[in-house]
Amino acid sequence: MGIIKAVGQAVSGGFADQWLEVYEPDDMGERTVFTSGVRIRKGQNVKGTDNTVSNGSVIHVYDNQFMMLLDGGKVVDYTAEPGYYKVDNSALPSFFNGQFQDTLKESLNRIRFGGQTPTKQQVFYLNLQEIKGIKFGTRNPINYFDNFYNAELFLRAHGSYSIKITDPLKFYQEVIPRNQEHVNIEDVNEQYISEFMEAFQAAVNQMSAEGIRISFVPSKGMELSRYMADILDENWKQLRGMEVLAVGVASISYNEESQKLINMRNEGAMLSDPTVREGYLQGHMARGLEGAGNNANGAMAGFMGMGMAMNAGSGMMGAASQTNLQQMQMNQANRQAQQMQPGQQAQQGKGQAAPGGWTCQCGAANSGKFCSECGKPAPAPGWTCECGAVNSGKFCSECGKPAPASEWTCGCGAVNKGKFCSNCGKPRA
Fold this sequence. Notes:
With 429 residues, the chain is of the alpha+beta class. Helices cover 34% and strands 24% of the residues. It has helices at 8-12, 105-111, 168-174, 185-189, 193-209, 221-240, 256-271, 274-293, 299-339, 342-349, and strands at residues 2-5, 21-25, 32-41, 58-61, 65-71, 74-79, 83-88, 121-127, 131-137, 142-146, 151-165, 182-184, 242-254, 358-359, 365-366, 383-384, 390-391, 408-409, 415-416.
């Protein structure tokens, strides 16, 4: 038994005049992954035998469908190309692969000899469209270490994902329950949802390892799809003939402890700004005045109580405001310094070495270990002899050679070794 692609003229001329039976796919909605073929008889011909595909019958295949012709439980022919196909009991299997080419050969060899009886012919269809809207949700919170918060947080996620059948024969063999004629995605998803959630947690942990902030997870659907495709490739694509196409995270929520940590971190980040901190302090004082005016015992009593409190805490609040002001002034000075041109900074630093500091060869005055202008290290104390010994006296403690004349920088910027400046003649200080 096999199938032969029907000639277009015969179909357009009316296949009802030539074939007694036509097979169409049963209801195949967007949630359907597998369904049987429905036989449509011509006229009053109702004497056909059930589970028998008559020789000369026509099977109709639509776009994004994979049709299988079974005889005694084994696949004897299939096609993924849309069109009309005539059943020929004398024909050898034709195997119209469509876009699958040679990928189905190995799968076919695994199931073609698994038939039970040679007297039952059936037509089945598999849905090759993307199966969307498969719901998922985390039963328990997933741990997520966030580098930004520097804390181990726990999140819950809900969303949906989509799959696509990539090897129909393998999918039929490994996923579709036996003796079923119509299967929706919900009928088979339950047995794989635990594997999906394990892969989801592994993908989320991978995002955590890459330093992605936890609040960015809902917008990383493409990255999640890529991670999960890599994780599930062996189990789902190679063994079951399906793959994950897309993952959409609809909502992210945190457990109570994680939410407290996030709120505390965000509040601390805001209050580290002296402007925000001063505004919070002034607002607190304003709310106190407002509360005093609304005092049930009268505004005067409220203001008296507030005055006592202010007298007690005025020193502390005044000190806090003064600290805020100083920090705001420092921040403003730092911003102005960053906006200065490098040449201006260098000009300000030339010849102005602080006590205990040192002047670089470029002319910048410094107090640290490296020049703030050119990055050169500060000169080492003492001097190094040609023999390699480091000394602090006038002669080398290892070979006795005298120390070389030390260099010094004049106020005019010239570097000298003698007692007088070679540029302006000033004596060495």
